[in-house]
Amino acid sequence: GQNIDQPTEMTATEGAIVQINCTYQTSGFNGLFWYQQHAGEAPTFLSYNVLDGLEEKGRFSSFLSRSKGYSYLLLKELQMKDSASYLCAVVDSNYQLIWGAGTKLIIKP
Amino acid sequence: ETGVTQTPRHLVMGMTNKKSLKCEQHLGHNAMYWYKQSAKKPLELMFVYSLEERVENNSVPSRFSPECPNSSHLFLHLHTLQPEDSALYLCASSQDSGASYEQYFGPGTRLTVT
Predict the structure, then answer these.
(1) Chain A CB contacts of B41 below 8 Å
(2) Smallest CA–CA distance from A48 into chain B, residue
(3) Which residues touch B24 (CB under 8 Å, ≥6 apart)?
(4) Rounded to an integer, what distance in angstroms lies between the CA atom of residue A50 and that of residue A106?
(5) Which CA distances in Å does B24 have to B63, B68, B74?
(6) Rounded distance between C-alpha atoms, residue B38 and residue B17, angstroms
(7) Which of A59, A86, B18, B100 lies deepest, with the highest CB count within 10 Å?
(8) What is the mean pLDDT of residues B56-79?
(9) Span A7-25, pLDDT tens digits
């Protein structure tokens, strides 16, 4: 079967750095997405990785290792508004999008 | 504001009721999606439309009936639902129906079946 694993919940401190991991076992790979979803709101696109390596976008970076079936989202200089759920999703060989259950990130002052 | 709107935002219905969820996208996209989101579970893709034609139906019970009259509007008609259908129903759109395209989501309809 196809599976995406993410921690259910993480807690971090304002101003700090946090890394949210995502591991996947899918039938093939054609890219990986990260989305952010604030409580009661729509998921919004953060990043898309299809090649190995780190992609930086302001305070957020996303890393991919296809050989390890692994990605992480790195959030720097955490702000209270970063409290949200972070969803990992993988495009498999049939170009189907397989979603993880999401990681709820709680930021404390 | 993502350019995708959904109404109503909240809906409470009995198991014998019939109701419809509405989604509209203002982005000029060709593909639209219905997802079900339950607490602590992955997003479940229900239906995909590309250029108003249904291209995917992930074995969704017939009590959910989608309708796509044009590329900007998507409906989900509901009838004789079960309590386990209570969830957040999200609509999304993308430039095309290929999964490698970024999806733009609406805020969702919080559905409670009593």
Answers:
(1) 101
(2) B102
(3) B4, B5, B6, B72, B73, B74
(4) 28
(5) 22, 10, 6
(6) 21
(7) A86
(8) 93
(9) 999 999 999 999 999 999 9
Residues A25/A69, Cβ–Cβ less than 8 Å: yes
- Beta bridge pairs of residue A38: none
Question: Which is nearest to A91 in space by CA: A40, A37, A50, A63?
Answer: A50
Backbone angles phi, psi at A29, to 5 degrees: -150, 130
Task: For residue range A19-65, list pLDDT tens digits in order.
Answer: 999 999 999 999 999 999 999 889 999 999 999 999 999 999 999 99
3-class SS of residue B85? helix
The tokens for A86 are 């972070």
Tell me the count of A-B CB pairs closer than 8 A: 48
Whether B20 and B68 have beta carbons less than 8 Å apart is answered as no
What does the alpha-carbon distance between residue B42 and residue B66 come to, in Å, rounded to a whole number?
21
State in Å, rounded, how far the first CA of chain A is from the last one: 40
Q: Which secondary structure element, helix H or strand E, spans residue A38, and what is its range?
A: none
Does residue B69 have a pLDDT over 90? yes
Question: Are A97 and B45 within 8 A, CB to CB?
Answer: yes
In sequence order, what are the beta bridge partners of A7? none
Structure tokens belonging to residue A14: 């304002």
* Closest alpha carbon within chain B to A45: B102
